[in-house]
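Support reply, case 0932

Customer input (verbatim):
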Amino acid sequence: MMSFAQKVITQAHQVCEQDIDELHEYGLSDEEILDIVLTSAARSFIGIILDTLGAKPDIGDLELEPELLQLLAVGRPYS
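Our regenerated output:
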């Protein structure tokens, strides 16, 4: 699922029926696959907007564990 989500974000033009079939083999329904596509695309879209605008994290985010903060910091790192 994560590999598929990454492909949706980085290589959407290369997503093919084989990718969908593989997810079906793992037991995912068409509705669940659509959820992965929509969630991945929306997260990427919002992340790009925030990164482009140089948005700063909420002050509460800075109180998170460093490891979690690093996982959430896609794009510009938190300073």
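We compared this against your earlier run and they match. Two observations from our side: Residues 48 and 75 are 8 Å apart (CA to CA). The radius of gyration is 15 Å. Please reopen the case if you see a mismatch on your end.
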